[in-house]
Amino acid sequence: MITPETLAQFKKKLKEQTVFGCFVKSCDGIFAETAGYAGFDYCIIDMEHGPISTDKLQELIRACECGGAAAIVRVPDISEQSIGKPLDLGAAGVQIPQVSTAEEAKKAVSLAKFYPRGERGVCRFVRAARYSSLEKREYFQSANDALVILQVEGVQGVEHIEEILAVEGIDVIFIGPYDLSQSLGVPGEVEHSLVTDTMKDLVKKAQAKGIAVGTFVDSIEAGIRWRNLGVHYISYSVDAGIFYEACRGAVKQFYA
Question: One of 49, 160, 192, 232 is an active-site residue; which one?
Answer without folding.
Answer: 49
